[in-house]
Amino acid sequence: MRLVFGFLLLAVPAQAETISVGSRITDVVVYPQGAKLTRLVEFTATAGQHDVIITDLPLNTNAASLRLMPSEGVQIGAYALRNDRVMPQDVAKSDAQVAAEAALEAAELAGGRAQLAMDAVAARIDAAAAQIAYLNRIGAGDAKADVANLQATAQMIGAEVLAASNAALAARADLPAVQKELQDAQEAQVRAQAALDALTASVKDHAAVSMAVSMEKAGPVHLEVTQFVAQATWQPIYDIALDRGAGNVVIDRSLLVSQNTGEDWAGVALTVSTAQPGNRAEASELWPELHRVEEPVKQDYARADTMGMMAEPVMEAASAAPLSKAAVQFQGDIVSYAYPQKVSIADGADNLRLTLDEVVLPAQAQAQAVPRYDASAYMMAAFTNTSGQILLPGTAVLMRDGALVGEVSLGTVAPGGRASLGFGAIEGLRLKRVVPARAEGDRGVFSKSNQIEQTAVLTVENLTAEKWAVRVVDVVPYSEQEELEINFTAVPPVSEQDVDDKRGVLAWDIAVPAGEVQEITVLTRESWPEGKELQ
Prior knowledge:
Structural class: alpha+beta
Strand content: 35-45%
Shape: flat
Helix content: 10-25%
Largest sheet: 14 strands, mixed
Radius of gyration: 41 Å
Number of domains: 4
Order of helices and strands: EEEEEEHHEEEEEHEEEEEEEEEEEEEE
């Protein structure tokens, strides 16, 4: 098999046979944005030249992305993409579609019979009403007849009206049954139509590929057509469960795939890839930067005219850098996942969720408390990705000890990388941060013109029935000026300072027994030279 592509116009001999065929999507590779489709085209032809038209490509087909690969003994000349004056599609119906059409036809016939029955009952009621009205008019017209005739007429009218009324009552008694029959038939027809619509691809504008094909000998032809489409995407989805008893996190990995390409994908082999073929393929270009120094220009602020505000440019005009370009962000090497079963994804209708696998990773769970801002501690779990596979960014649903606690966006976790996730509030660990009152009525703050002191008390109250290991985090000011001196003392002493390389962030690792309260006292002192102000 050989790969052929091109879009030169080729004159087809007049005696060439024209063959119109459809295609079937067999394989799909979905990227974070876009997908590569592989179509199979099959037909039988005699030896010689033929004009073959593939009639069922989506209208937004990109001509530059089309590639054709014929079977042995078949040569393809020039081919062209047609977006208008396209022949109608000859779409074969599946067995399920044929059965759905038959069910819809049967439902329509049943609905027609129910409507006829309904009309018959309504006609009986109308006939009885017309008969009663006619009899009433007869009685009114004989008002001047003799007594005997009036008596006879009255008896006849009474008997006939009674009979007509009984007929109307009998017809009305039959009405609920035929109404129910008609309603059931109409609902069955709606369901049958919906079932057929679900199996039938929407009829949309389409494109076609016309190509010149040369056959060495008569026989079947297998032609693979590949193309790139932009209207498809996938993303990872995670269910992450923290099991404190087992000391691990269980990560269920799934994929969410959707497409809006203008056609259904039915029974295709699906692969998802982290490659990004629609993005730039090269790094940004750097440009020389010319720097130079000059004597400073003394600004005359008394002359605020336009000429006084102009200054010589620092950069040479010929060396000025162009506008910066957006950098490409890659998240590790390209990763592909081939789904083991055939899948079907409807155009614009399905968000197909596919299960990948389950990863179990050891985790260190700990309560974290920030009394400065929070009223409760939160459960945190840190883990290292020892699975050997990259965890791609995606939405993660979090569960703790079997209970749903929230949803977060998981960032990329490379093999060997470490991550930390929060698993909800621990309502039984109550937090406070107060600046205690002093005897003089101040609020724990002592200050003078060049010094300030503040005392803060952090408390963790354990209302649960278990002992908790808690990491308490707080912050004190820091300075980068020699003349501003900042010191602090803490009881108990801090376990870690400048947590996560954040200046002034402090952490204490403490144990809080059930039903008890633990306190941390922090005294901060700031001093600076006289005559200056603290900002």
